[in-house]
Design a protein that fits this description.
about 75% helix; mainly alpha; Growth Hormone, Chain: A; 18 helices
C-alpha cells in the first residue's frame, strides 16, 4: 500500500503552490500580528515597554541573519529538508511562545521562531519561481505577492480580533495546525531539484560571524536608534561602527572567495542590481507606511486595534486584485511601464493621505488606501519577475535570499527614517503652534496643550506622507535603467527581461 506521506515526483503545480503559500503566509503574518498585542503581552507578563518591544525586535534580528544564508542552507540540506526543517522550527517555536511565562522566555522563543521564519519567505519565492515555466512566472510572483503584501495588512486585523476576543497566546497557537499541515505537505510535494549541489566548501565560520555581527548590529541600530536618541547613545554609536566594519569585511571576503557562503556575484546581472535598488525604495514605502499608518489611525483618529486592521484591509484587497490582473497581462506588456505605474500610483495615494486633518474618518482614508494597494500590485509583481528573470536557476535560492534581505533592510531604513522625522517634525510643529497661542479663549491650559499636541502630530504625519510621495516620484525614472530585450508577441516577459 502506498504511503500517503511519500513524496510524489508528479505533484501538480497547484499542490506545490498551496504548500509553499502555507509557510509563506504564516511567516509574513507573524511579523505584524504580534505588534497589536504588545501592550497586552507586557501587562500579562509584567514587562516594561522597552522589554516587550524585544518580542518584535528579536524576531526581525533573527530573520535578517538567516535570509542571506538561504542559498547555502538549501544546497547543504536540500530544498525539501531545508523548507520542512524551517517550518518545523517555526511551528515548535510558535508553541513555545504561547506557553511563555516570562518576557525573557518569550523573547528567546521569538528569536528561535525568527530563525525558522526568516528562511520561509525567500525559499517560498525560489520554489515558485523554479516550479512555474518562464511564461507563467509573472503569475507565480503574483501568487507569491498575495502573501508577501497582503499578509502584513491581515496581521493587525487578525491580531486585534484575537486580543479583543480571546487571549494573546492564541496568536502563536494558531500557527500550530497550519505548520503541521505545511510540514507534511512539504515532504509529500516539494521537489529536490537535481541541479542543486552540495556546497563545494565547508561552512565559512569567519564569513558567518562577520555577516551575523554586521547584520544584527545594523538591524539593532535601525530598530532602536530613535528610541535611544541615536548617536547620543554610546551603544548605537559603537554598533554603527561595528556594523560598517563587519559588513565591509564580509562583502570583501564574499567577493574574493571561490565558494562564498553568500553569493554576491548575482549583482553582476544589471536587472537584479537595479531591482534591488528599487526594492529598497519600495521596502521603504511599504514597511514605513505599514508602521506609520496604524500609529496615525490610533493616535489621531482614535481607532481601536481592530478598527485599525479594518482600515488597512481595503488596501490589502485592492493589492490582491491588482496582482491577479498584472499576473495575467505581464507577458503582453513592457514590465517597466507597470513598475513605473505602480510607483506613481503609490506616490499619489500617499500624497492624498498628506492632505488629511484631525477630523478625518474611515472613509477619508478608505480611498487613499484602496489606491495605494492597487499600485502595489502593479509594482511588486513585475519588479520581482524582472529582478530575478536573468538569474540562473542554479543561483536562484541564493538570489531570493539576498533580494528578500535587501527589501527588509530597505524597510528597516524606512521605519527608522520615518519615525525619526515624525518626532522631529512634531517638535517643530509644536514650537510653531505653541508660539502662536496668545490667549486661552475660554479653554483651560491642559485643553489647549492637548489641542496643540494633536495638531502638531497631525502636521508631522502629513509631512511624512508627502515626503514618501516625493521619494516614490523621484525614484520612478530609475525603472527605465532596467534593460528589456525586444520580444515577439506572446513571448514570456520573465524569459527576456535582461541586463546588459
Amino acid at each position: 500500500m502506498r504511503n500517503p506521506f511519500a513524496h510524489r515526483d508528479d505533484a501538480p503545480i497547484a499542490l506545490i503552490t498551496i504548500t509553499t503559500m502555507l509557510g509563506l503566509i504564516m511567516a509574513i503574518i507573524d511579523t505584524t500580528i504580534v505588534n497589536v498585542a504588545l501592550d497586552t503581552i507586557g501587562g500579562n507578563l509584567g514587562a516594561s515597554v522597552d522589554e516587550v518591544s524585544w518580542v518584535a525586535t528579536g524576531y526581525i534580528l533573527a530573520n535578517v541573519v538567516v535570509m542571506p544564508l538561504n542559498g547555502w542552507l538549501t544546497a547543504f540540506l536540500g530544498r525539501k529538508r531545508f523548507y520542512a526543517a524551517s517550518l518545523a522550527l517555526f511551528t515548535i517555536a510558535s508553541f513555545l511562545c504561547g506557553t511563555a511565562t516570562s518576557i525573557t522566555q518569550l523573547v528567546i522563543y521569538r528569536v528561535i521562531q525568527g530563525i525558522g521564519g526568516g528562511a520561509l519567505q525567500p525559499t517560498a519565492q525560489a520554489i515558485l519561481f523554479e516550479t512555474y515555466p518562464p511564461e507563467r512566472r509573472g503569475a507565480a510572483m503574483a501568487i507569491f505577492g498575495l502573501g508577501a503584501m497582503v499578509g502584513p495588512a491581515i496581521g493587525p486585523t487578525l491580531g486585534g480580533y484575537i486580543v479583543d476576543n480571546a487571549s494573546w497566546p492564541l496568536i502563536f497557537f494558531i500557527n500550530i495546525p497550519i505548520g503541521i499541515a505545511a510540514v507534511m505537505m512539504t515532504m509529500m510535494f516539494i521537489p529536490n531539484p537535481k541541479y542543486i549541489e552540495k556546497p563545494k566548501a565547508g561552512l565559512d565560520f569567519t564569513g558567518l560571524g562577520l555577516m551575523t555581527v554586521g547584520l544584527a548590529s545594523l538591524q539593532y541600530v535601525l530598530e532602536r536608534g530613535e528610541h535611544d536618541d541615536w548617536y547620543s547613545s554610546n551603544t548605537i554609536t559603537i554598533l554603527t561602527i561595528v556594523s560598517i566594519v563587519a559588513l565591509v569585511l564580509f562583502i570583501w571576503k564574499m567577493t574574493r572567495d571561490r565558494h562564498p557562503l553568500v553569493n554576491l556575484h548575482v549583482f553582476r546581472y544589471r536587472s537584479f542590481t537595479i531591482g534591488n535598488i528599487l526594492g529598497i525604495i519600495s521596502g521603504f514605502g511599504l514597511f514605513g507606511t505599514n508602521l506609520i499608518l496604524p500609529l496615525f489611525f490610533q493616535q489621531i483618529l482614535n481607532f481601536t486595534a481592530f478598527d485599525t486592521g479594518m482600515a488597512l484591509l481595503p488596501g490589502a484587497i485592492s493589492t490582491a486584485i491588482s496582482m491577479l490582473i498584472i499576473g495575467r497581462i505581464l507577458n503582453r506588456i513592457d514590465p517597466r511601464l507597470s513598475i513605473a505605474f505602480g510607483f506613481l500610483v503609490f506616490g499619489y495615494s500617499t500624497w492624498m493621505l498628506g492632505g488629511l486633518n484631525t477630523n478625518a474618518g474611515y472613509w477619508d482614508v478608505f480611498w487613499p488606501r484602496l489606491i495605494q494597494g492597487f499600485g502595489l500590485g502593479f509594482l511588486f509583481v513585475p519588479l520581482t519577475t524582472v529582478s530575478l528573470g536573468d538569474v540562473p536557476i542554479s543561483e536562484m535560492a541564493g538570489a531570493t535570499g539576498v533580494y528578500t534581505l535587501v527589501r527588509q533592510i530597505g524597510g528597516s531604513f524606512g521605519i527608522a527614517i520615518l519615525t525619526t522625522l515624525l518626532v522631529h517634525q512634531t517638535a517643530v510643529a509644536w514650537n510653531e503652534l505653541a508660539s502662536g497661542v496668545t490667549q486661552t479663549h475660554g479653554y483651560s491650559i491642559n485643553t489647549l496643550t492637548s489641542i496643540v499636541a494633536q495638531q502638531s502630530t497631525m502636521i508631522a504625519y502629513d509631512y511624512l506622507f508627502r515626503v514618501t510621495a516625493i521619494i516614490f516620484a523621484l525614484a520612478t525614472p530609475l525603472v527605465f535603467l532596467i534593460r528589456v530585450k525586444q520580444r515577439t508577441a506572446g513571448a514570456p516577459a520573465g524569459a527576456v527581461a535582461a541586463a546588459d
